[in-house]
Amino acid sequence: MINLEAERAIITSVLVKPKLIDDIIEILQPSDFTDISYGLIFNTLTALDPKDIDIISLAENLSSKGILEQVGGMSFLSDLFNGMATSANALSYARVLKDKSNLRGLGCKLRDALMQLDTVESYADAVSSVGAILESTDIQVDGYKEFKDIVRGQMMNLDARFKAGGGFDGLRTGFDSLDETIMGLKPADYWVIGARPSMGKTAFSLAICQNVAKAGGNVLYFSAESSKESLTDRVITSCSGVDSKTIKSARLTDENWSSLSAGVSTILDYSLSIIDISGIDISHAKAIARKFNRKRKVDLIVVDYLQLMTCKTAKGDFEVASAVSRGLKAMAKDTGCPIIALAQLSREVEKRQNKRPLMSDLRSTGQIEQDADIITFLYRDEYYNEDSPDKGITELTMRKSRDGEIKDHFFKSDFSTMRYEEINYSPAQQEPTYKPFAGN
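Below the sequence we write its predicted structure tokens.
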């Protein structure tokens, strides 16, 4: 039940490929190692940022804890470094190690059961005592909770909200009417916002991010299209009210500078992290999300946009989009954090007289429609109709809401300052025959 080769291989694998630590942490704990040196080293590695993991930083951190000599000193670390091999089987080694650890735990339970035989007076008492010990042995079931514990937790949550005067417990987007419709974003919610180009997907998602961050939330934004600098410029424009053209040209008045200074001072402490990796793989995104979630609970994840993400294990647009959609839903559940994924719509929209999006317009796959808890579409009539009476209005059309009602929302939108204001509005043009997708 001891496999020192596997323990050593896991440590060296992380040194070869530091990003593996995110996946291995989900399987192993330091206590799963039988060799105390490997256990202490693994515990130290889990506290490091993957990008900082190397033999020197490992030695420095062990030394700062006063345990470098306890693990064997620099000579032991040098042996590890010189013996580093491939990291290809690291996760297999981790699973083997976890299985061995569980077996050792079971062995301890059985030894306790045998010791009970010396303290009982009859066979019936022995069976009862040993049975109780064996029944306490844990069977690993990820995510399992006793139903009664779930019920109690839900009732405690309901009681707390009732005593606080009522209200939903989901994450607020900052748009009150929308929040009342969806009852806030719940942990593991997967919300898809689809639109054709130039409808304001990115601007709208950034508006939600700013609202969440302003309320003290921690936001992680994956951008496969725009740079972090470009997105930051949009946030600066929005918070200051200085139009984007003026900022881009740098032709600023004293009043502009005053507005910029005041606006920027309000966002400097926002917990908004932007990851701008072009064509980021879904597994890579999951690892990043897990890392951020370990450091501080992430309240909202945004992906801009879904069809620009990749999946190494899938081929073709259909398979890739399906795998990414499934991966995003899994990421939402794993992190316990709602995910907003922006999605590009097909050109079929352009062929219809009424260009308000339909569910069938989601590009590449029907998997998105199946996975998403909420599906909405953005539409600006003025983009297609120069003389539209709905100028300056962005429609958020809701087509699916698994746990809430189906209701459309309207925003006064100003793209020169990247701002949205929720309003009561009835558009001049409505689609007469389409009925919204019912929640399931």
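The chain has two domains: 1-141, 176-423.
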